[in-house]
Design goal:
A hairpin with a 5-residue loop joins strand 15 and strand 16. About 0% of the residues lie in helices and about 50% in strands. The longest helix is centred in the C-terminal third of the chain and has 5 residues. It is an all-beta fold. The strands form 5 sheets. It has a 6-stranded antiparallel beta sheet, with no helix packed on it. A 4-stranded antiparallel beta sheet has the order 1-12-5-9, with no helix packed on it. Strands 16-15-18-19 form a 4-stranded antiparallel beta sheet, with no helix packed on it.
Length: about 270
């Protein structure tokens, strides 16, 4: 999936109610860039039920909104929003329609907003409910305190963060790594595809490439497992944190790459035992 940082030009205000009669952003809403901590703006006081764990600051209810134009680049695309961290109890809306929620303040979550978009201006709204007190054993902050990304892809795509690499065997001569890729065909047509996986060393030199053909039926999701031999591996440990990189491509019947994902990994003996 194409991943675009989406931190700039958000509106923020205290308060928020999914059942409010007025849905417009207030005139005194602040313009903020993410990551943003709403709790730090609360006035500390000695009697706060949160106590010293949160700097004697109360939690609260907060709203974030981002306004963006729907343009031709999004047409026929799968569109998701990835939140790396919202503390906590987040409710997410697009153009006033409820899209999804996430209660855990410490995990990344993705929401598919494809079917909620409209021509012209769109609004993504996040309501954060962090008013429970006492709140935490440490300073949690409040709000969208980590990065937000806009994820876009074709109908046939790799899931967001949908590649896993695990060491199966390793010695000084060779290592076997298992690359699992989670592929979705969200179209109404059968697709003839190839999954092409390349492994690179720390300098970016390609070491090995494997390509396997598959047929995906309409609206089919599948995990593709590819075992790849890496010659003379450099093992990762605390003294030598050596990282390889991978790139997984989805290649259509015409030979064009329609989606890809890349990342890094270490070849670790510890992975064999887990």
């Amino acid at each position: 999936m194409k991943k675009q940082l989406w931190n700039d030009n958000w509106k923020f205000w205290a308060g928020g109610d999914a059942f409010a009669l007025s849905w417009n952003a207030p005139e005194d809403a602040l313009s903020v860039n993410l990551p943003h901590d709403a709790m730090i703006h609360e006035k500390p006081y000695k009697e706060s039920p949160n106590g010293g764990n949160t700097g004697y600051r109360d939690g609260g209810y907060y709203t974030y909104a981002k306004f963006f134009e729907y343009d031709s680049s999004l047409k026929d695309k799968k569109v998701l929003v990835q939140f790396e961290g919202v503390y906590k109890d987040a409710l997410v809306f697009v153009n006033g329609d409820f899209v999804g929620k996430n209660h855990n303040g410490y995990v990344t979550f993705n929401l598919d907003i494809t079917d909620f978009l409209q021509e012209g201006q769109n609004e993504l709204r996040v309501q954060v409910h962090n008013g429970d007190m006492p709140n935490s054993r440490w300073y949690s902050g409040s709000g969208i305190y980590r990065d937000v990304y806009l994820l876009t892809s074709e109908g046939v795509h790799i899931e967001a963060d949908g590649v896993r690499v695990k060491t199966e065997n390793a010695d000084s001569d060779t290592a076997t790594v298992l690359v699992t890729s989670y592929i979705n065909n969200d179209t109404s047509s059968k697709s003839n595809l190839s999954i092409q996986t390349s492994i690179y060393d720390a300098l970016g030199k390609q070491l090995v490439q494997r390509t396997d053909p598959y047929v995906f039926m309409s609206n089919e999701s599948r995990s593709i497992r590819q075992r790849i031999i890496v010659p003379t591996p450099c093992l990762w440990d605390e003294e030598n944190p050596y990282l390889y990189s991978y790139q997984v491509n989805i290649v259509n019947a015409d030979g064009a790459v329609i989606d890809s994902e890349s990342g890094s990994f270490g070849i670790r003996i510890e992975d064999i035992w887990s």
